[in-house]
Specification:
Length: 46
């Protein structure tokens, strides 16, 4: 998964009304249900 795709997923799962404005751990848990990549737990996102 490219860095741009990671950013798009993070934005969708963190900011959209469908997913809510969740914490980092909740956002990564939601993403992990459908996607995975090397270093997923090392993502730094502001």
């Amino acid at each position: 998964m490219s860095p741009d795709e990671v950013i798009q997923l993070l934005n969708f799962y963190h900011f959209t009304a469908v997913c809510g404005h969740s914490s980092v751990s909740t956002t990564l848990a939601k993403i992990s249900q459908h996607y995975t990549w090397n270093g997923i737990k090392d993502v730094e996102y502001i």
